[in-house]
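HOLO CASE FILE
Compound: phosphoric acid mono(formamide)ester
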Amino acid sequence: MRHLMSPLDFSVEELDTLLALASDIEKNPEKYAHACAGKKLATLFYEPSTRTRLSHEAAMLNLGGSVLGFSSADSSSASKGESVSDTIRTISCYADIAAMRHPKEGAPMVACKHASIPVINAGDGGHQHPTQTLTDLLTIKSLKGHLNNMTIGLCGDLKFGRTVHSLIHALVRYEGIQFVLISPEELRLPSYIRQDVLDKHQIPYKEVVRLEDALPELDILYMTRVQKERFFNEEDYVRMKDFYILDKKKMQLAPKDMHVLHPLPRVNEISVEVDDDPRAAYFKQVQYGVYVRMALILTLLDIHVD
Ligand code: CP
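Model generated. C-alpha coordinates follow.
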Protein backbone atom coordinates (compact mmCIF):
# COMPACT_ATOMS: atom_id res chain seq x y z
CA MET A 1 0.00 0.00 0.00
CA ARG A 2 1.31 3.45 -0.96
CA HIS A 3 0.68 6.84 0.56
CA LEU A 4 1.62 10.32 -0.66
CA MET A 5 3.31 12.37 2.05
CA SER A 6 5.89 14.23 -0.04
CA PRO A 7 6.55 14.68 -3.76
CA LEU A 8 9.73 12.64 -3.17
CA ASP A 9 7.58 9.56 -2.48
CA PHE A 10 7.53 9.18 -6.28
CA SER A 11 10.73 8.73 -8.29
CA VAL A 12 11.20 11.00 -11.32
CA GLU A 13 10.19 8.07 -13.56
CA GLU A 14 7.05 7.44 -11.50
CA LEU A 15 6.22 11.14 -11.66
CA ASP A 16 6.61 11.08 -15.45
CA THR A 17 4.19 8.14 -15.60
CA LEU A 18 1.71 9.92 -13.32
CA LEU A 19 1.85 13.15 -15.35
CA ALA A 20 1.42 11.17 -18.58
CA LEU A 21 -1.65 9.49 -17.07
CA ALA A 22 -3.04 12.90 -16.06
CA SER A 23 -2.55 14.16 -19.63
CA ASP A 24 -4.34 11.10 -21.01
CA ILE A 25 -7.21 11.73 -18.57
CA GLU A 26 -7.40 15.32 -19.84
CA LYS A 27 -7.64 14.10 -23.45
CA ASN A 28 -9.90 11.08 -22.87
CA PRO A 29 -12.01 11.70 -19.74
CA GLU A 30 -14.73 9.25 -20.80
CA LYS A 31 -12.23 6.37 -20.73
CA TYR A 32 -11.85 6.85 -16.96
CA ALA A 33 -15.46 7.69 -16.09
CA HIS A 34 -16.15 4.40 -14.26
CA ALA A 35 -12.63 3.43 -13.19
CA CYS A 36 -13.40 3.90 -9.48
CA ALA A 37 -17.00 2.63 -9.46
CA GLY A 38 -17.73 1.30 -5.97
CA LYS A 39 -14.72 3.09 -4.40
CA LYS A 40 -14.96 5.82 -1.77
CA LEU A 41 -12.68 8.78 -1.03
CA ALA A 42 -12.74 10.36 2.44
CA THR A 43 -11.65 13.99 2.74
CA LEU A 44 -10.49 14.76 6.28
CA PHE A 45 -9.90 18.50 6.40
CA TYR A 46 -8.92 20.00 9.75
CA GLU A 47 -8.06 23.30 8.04
CA PRO A 48 -10.03 25.39 5.49
CA SER A 49 -9.74 24.61 1.78
CA THR A 50 -11.56 25.25 -1.46
CA ARG A 51 -9.38 23.78 -4.22
CA THR A 52 -7.65 20.89 -2.53
CA ARG A 53 -10.72 19.37 -0.92
CA LEU A 54 -13.11 19.97 -3.79
CA SER A 55 -10.63 18.93 -6.49
CA HIS A 56 -10.02 15.62 -4.69
CA GLU A 57 -13.79 15.16 -4.49
CA ALA A 58 -14.28 16.18 -8.14
CA ALA A 59 -11.51 13.77 -9.12
CA MET A 60 -13.15 10.82 -7.38
CA LEU A 61 -16.59 11.71 -8.76
CA ASN A 62 -15.13 12.02 -12.28
CA LEU A 63 -13.77 8.49 -11.83
CA GLY A 64 -17.22 7.15 -10.96
CA GLY A 65 -16.52 6.81 -7.22
CA SER A 66 -18.14 8.41 -4.17
CA VAL A 67 -16.96 10.85 -1.52
CA LEU A 68 -17.49 11.44 2.19
CA GLY A 69 -15.72 13.46 4.84
CA PHE A 70 -15.56 16.58 6.95
CA SER A 71 -14.37 20.08 6.11
CA SER A 72 -13.38 21.40 9.54
CA ALA A 73 -12.06 20.01 12.81
CA ASP A 74 -15.08 21.57 14.54
CA SER A 75 -17.50 19.36 12.63
CA SER A 76 -15.58 16.15 13.48
CA SER A 77 -14.88 14.34 16.73
CA ALA A 78 -11.47 16.05 16.79
CA SER A 79 -13.43 18.77 18.63
CA LYS A 80 -14.08 16.18 21.38
CA GLY A 81 -10.39 15.33 21.59
CA GLU A 82 -10.16 12.35 19.22
CA SER A 83 -6.63 11.68 17.95
CA VAL A 84 -5.60 11.59 14.29
CA SER A 85 -4.65 7.91 14.69
CA ASP A 86 -8.07 6.91 16.04
CA THR A 87 -9.79 8.97 13.35
CA ILE A 88 -7.91 7.33 10.49
CA ARG A 89 -8.50 3.83 11.93
CA THR A 90 -12.20 4.67 11.91
CA ILE A 91 -12.13 6.15 8.40
CA SER A 92 -10.30 3.05 7.14
CA CYS A 93 -13.56 1.16 7.87
CA TYR A 94 -15.58 3.57 5.73
CA ALA A 95 -13.44 4.48 2.71
CA ASP A 96 -10.86 3.09 0.26
CA ILE A 97 -8.57 6.14 0.25
CA ALA A 98 -8.29 9.35 2.30
CA ALA A 99 -6.96 12.86 1.75
CA MET A 100 -6.01 14.73 4.94
CA ARG A 101 -5.22 18.41 5.54
CA HIS A 102 -4.05 19.37 9.01
CA PRO A 103 -2.52 22.51 10.59
CA LYS A 104 0.15 20.43 12.36
CA GLU A 105 3.23 19.36 10.42
CA GLY A 106 3.44 15.57 10.30
CA ALA A 107 -0.22 14.81 11.12
CA PRO A 108 -0.85 12.98 7.78
CA MET A 109 2.34 10.99 8.44
CA VAL A 110 0.92 9.87 11.79
CA ALA A 111 -2.31 8.97 10.00
CA CYS A 112 -0.62 6.83 7.35
CA LYS A 113 1.11 4.78 10.06
CA HIS A 114 -2.28 3.79 11.50
CA ALA A 115 -4.26 3.53 8.25
CA SER A 116 -5.20 0.44 6.34
CA ILE A 117 -6.00 2.58 3.27
CA PRO A 118 -3.77 4.94 1.21
CA VAL A 119 -3.48 8.41 2.76
CA ILE A 120 -2.77 11.57 0.76
CA ASN A 121 -1.17 14.55 2.49
CA ALA A 122 -3.39 17.44 1.38
CA GLY A 123 -1.23 20.00 3.20
CA ASP A 124 0.32 19.82 6.69
CA GLY A 125 1.06 23.14 8.40
CA GLY A 126 4.01 24.96 6.85
CA HIS A 127 5.60 21.68 5.77
CA GLN A 128 4.47 20.09 2.50
CA HIS A 129 1.63 20.17 -0.04
CA PRO A 130 2.50 17.35 -2.45
CA THR A 131 -0.72 17.29 -4.49
CA GLN A 132 -0.29 21.01 -5.18
CA THR A 133 3.20 20.16 -6.41
CA LEU A 134 1.82 17.48 -8.74
CA THR A 135 -0.59 20.14 -10.01
CA ASP A 136 2.26 22.63 -10.49
CA LEU A 137 4.43 20.10 -12.32
CA LEU A 138 1.60 19.13 -14.65
CA THR A 139 0.85 22.80 -15.32
CA ILE A 140 4.48 23.65 -16.09
CA LYS A 141 4.94 20.56 -18.25
CA SER A 142 1.75 21.23 -20.17
CA LEU A 143 2.62 24.90 -20.77
CA LYS A 144 6.34 24.56 -21.44
CA GLY A 145 6.53 20.99 -22.75
CA HIS A 146 9.28 20.04 -20.29
CA LEU A 147 10.36 20.32 -16.66
CA ASN A 148 14.07 20.99 -17.13
CA ASN A 149 16.27 23.96 -18.07
CA MET A 150 14.20 26.70 -16.49
CA THR A 151 14.59 29.72 -14.26
CA ILE A 152 11.79 29.73 -11.73
CA GLY A 153 10.95 32.73 -9.59
CA LEU A 154 9.31 31.93 -6.26
CA CYS A 155 7.75 35.06 -4.81
CA GLY A 156 6.10 35.96 -1.51
CA ASP A 157 5.95 33.95 1.67
CA LEU A 158 8.83 31.53 1.19
CA LYS A 159 9.14 30.94 4.94
CA PHE A 160 5.75 29.41 5.68
CA GLY A 161 4.70 28.55 2.10
CA ARG A 162 4.34 24.78 2.01
CA THR A 163 3.56 24.85 -1.71
CA VAL A 164 6.96 26.44 -2.35
CA HIS A 165 8.77 23.97 -0.09
CA SER A 166 7.22 20.97 -1.86
CA LEU A 167 7.83 22.44 -5.33
CA ILE A 168 11.53 23.04 -4.62
CA HIS A 169 11.95 19.46 -3.38
CA ALA A 170 10.38 18.16 -6.59
CA LEU A 171 12.11 20.44 -9.12
CA VAL A 172 15.70 19.99 -7.93
CA ARG A 173 15.59 16.50 -9.42
CA TYR A 174 15.36 17.91 -12.97
CA GLU A 175 18.33 19.10 -15.07
CA GLY A 176 19.14 22.77 -15.51
CA ILE A 177 16.77 24.20 -12.89
CA GLN A 178 17.64 27.47 -11.17
CA PHE A 179 15.65 29.56 -8.75
CA VAL A 180 15.23 33.23 -7.98
CA LEU A 181 13.89 33.48 -4.43
CA ILE A 182 11.91 36.72 -4.14
CA SER A 183 10.84 37.62 -0.61
CA PRO A 184 11.13 40.21 2.12
CA GLU A 185 13.93 39.46 4.63
CA GLU A 186 11.43 38.19 7.24
CA LEU A 187 9.88 35.65 4.86
CA ARG A 188 13.04 34.14 3.33
CA LEU A 189 13.17 30.47 2.50
CA PRO A 190 14.16 28.58 5.68
CA SER A 191 17.88 27.84 5.91
CA TYR A 192 17.24 24.09 6.23
CA ILE A 193 15.76 24.08 2.71
CA ARG A 194 18.50 26.29 1.28
CA GLN A 195 21.20 24.07 2.75
CA ASP A 196 19.66 20.58 2.74
CA VAL A 197 17.96 20.86 -0.64
CA LEU A 198 19.39 23.64 -2.83
CA ASP A 199 23.03 23.49 -1.71
CA LYS A 200 23.02 19.70 -1.44
CA HIS A 201 21.86 19.37 -5.06
CA GLN A 202 24.14 22.23 -6.18
CA ILE A 203 21.17 24.16 -7.54
CA PRO A 204 22.01 27.73 -8.58
CA TYR A 205 19.81 30.27 -6.82
CA LYS A 206 19.78 33.89 -5.78
CA GLU A 207 17.72 35.81 -3.29
CA VAL A 208 16.24 39.21 -4.17
CA VAL A 209 13.75 41.49 -2.48
CA ARG A 210 12.39 43.40 -5.48
CA LEU A 211 10.11 41.50 -7.86
CA GLU A 212 11.00 43.99 -10.63
CA ASP A 213 14.65 42.92 -10.48
CA ALA A 214 13.78 39.26 -11.08
CA LEU A 215 11.02 39.44 -13.69
CA PRO A 216 13.10 39.87 -16.90
CA GLU A 217 14.95 36.56 -16.46
CA LEU A 218 12.09 34.22 -15.48
CA ASP A 219 10.49 31.33 -17.37
CA ILE A 220 7.97 30.76 -14.58
CA LEU A 221 6.83 33.15 -11.87
CA TYR A 222 5.27 31.31 -8.94
CA MET A 223 3.42 33.84 -6.76
CA THR A 224 2.27 33.00 -3.25
CA ARG A 225 0.04 34.58 -0.66
CA VAL A 226 1.34 35.95 2.63
CA GLN A 227 -0.44 33.53 4.94
CA LYS A 228 -2.26 35.29 7.75
CA GLU A 229 -2.92 32.01 9.54
CA ARG A 230 0.81 31.27 10.01
CA PHE A 231 1.70 34.62 11.65
CA PHE A 232 2.01 34.90 15.41
CA ASN A 233 0.83 38.51 15.49
CA GLU A 234 -1.46 40.63 13.34
CA GLU A 235 0.97 43.56 13.19
CA ASP A 236 3.64 41.54 11.34
CA TYR A 237 1.03 40.21 8.92
CA VAL A 238 -0.32 43.70 8.14
CA ARG A 239 3.22 44.93 7.48
CA MET A 240 3.95 42.08 5.05
CA LYS A 241 0.66 41.37 3.33
CA ASP A 242 0.90 43.81 0.42
CA PHE A 243 4.67 43.62 -0.01
CA TYR A 244 4.23 42.22 -3.54
CA ILE A 245 1.49 43.17 -5.97
CA LEU A 246 1.93 41.89 -9.51
CA ASP A 247 0.15 44.27 -11.87
CA LYS A 248 0.05 45.07 -15.59
CA LYS A 249 2.94 47.51 -15.31
CA LYS A 250 5.24 44.92 -13.72
CA MET A 251 4.15 42.30 -16.29
CA GLN A 252 5.68 44.57 -18.98
CA LEU A 253 9.09 43.69 -17.49
CA ALA A 254 8.52 39.94 -17.92
CA PRO A 255 9.38 37.83 -20.99
CA LYS A 256 6.55 37.20 -23.46
CA ASP A 257 6.68 33.45 -22.78
CA MET A 258 6.84 33.62 -18.99
CA HIS A 259 3.90 31.98 -17.22
CA VAL A 260 2.44 33.14 -13.92
CA LEU A 261 1.37 30.40 -11.53
CA HIS A 262 -0.21 30.72 -8.09
CA PRO A 263 -1.56 27.89 -5.93
CA LEU A 264 -4.44 30.20 -4.91
CA PRO A 265 -6.24 31.55 -2.98
CA ARG A 266 -4.85 34.99 -3.83
CA VAL A 267 -5.48 38.07 -1.78
CA ASN A 268 -3.82 41.18 -3.28
CA GLU A 269 -0.56 39.75 -4.61
CA ILE A 270 -1.84 39.46 -8.19
CA SER A 271 -3.99 42.33 -9.36
CA VAL A 272 -7.14 41.14 -11.16
CA GLU A 273 -6.03 43.22 -14.17
CA VAL A 274 -3.38 40.51 -14.80
CA ASP A 275 -6.06 37.81 -15.20
CA ASP A 276 -6.59 38.68 -18.88
CA ASP A 277 -2.89 38.48 -19.70
CA PRO A 278 -2.25 35.29 -21.76
CA ARG A 279 0.66 34.55 -19.41
CA ALA A 280 -1.67 34.24 -16.40
CA ALA A 281 -1.94 30.47 -15.87
CA TYR A 282 -3.37 30.19 -12.36
CA PHE A 283 -6.90 29.20 -13.35
CA LYS A 284 -5.59 26.66 -15.87
CA GLN A 285 -3.56 25.35 -12.94
CA VAL A 286 -6.80 24.77 -11.00
CA GLN A 287 -8.11 22.60 -13.84
CA TYR A 288 -4.88 20.62 -14.04
CA GLY A 289 -5.29 19.94 -10.31
CA VAL A 290 -8.33 17.79 -11.03
CA TYR A 291 -6.62 15.70 -13.74
CA VAL A 292 -3.53 15.08 -11.64
CA ARG A 293 -5.56 14.07 -8.58
CA MET A 294 -7.54 11.65 -10.76
CA ALA A 295 -4.22 10.15 -11.84
CA LEU A 296 -3.03 10.03 -8.23
CA ILE A 297 -6.16 8.25 -6.96
CA LEU A 298 -5.84 5.63 -9.73
CA THR A 299 -2.15 5.17 -8.96
CA LEU A 300 -2.56 4.80 -5.19
CA LEU A 301 -5.50 2.42 -5.63
CA ASP A 302 -3.46 0.51 -8.24
CA ILE A 303 -6.29 0.75 -10.78
CA HIS A 304 -5.27 0.44 -14.42
CA VAL A 305 -7.45 1.49 -17.35
CA ASP A 306 -6.63 0.04 -20.75
N1 CP B 1 -3.99 25.64 -3.33
C1 CP B 1 -4.67 25.32 -2.21
O1 CP B 1 -4.19 24.53 -1.35
O2 CP B 1 -5.89 25.89 -2.11
P1 CP B 1 -6.96 25.60 -0.98
O3 CP B 1 -6.38 26.10 0.32
O4 CP B 1 -8.21 26.32 -1.39
O5 CP B 1 -7.15 24.11 -0.90
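CASE NOTES: The pocket of phosphoric acid mono(formamide)ester is lined by residues 49-52, 123, 132, 263-265 (CB under 6 Å). Residues 282-300 form the longest helix (19 residues).
CLOSED: yes
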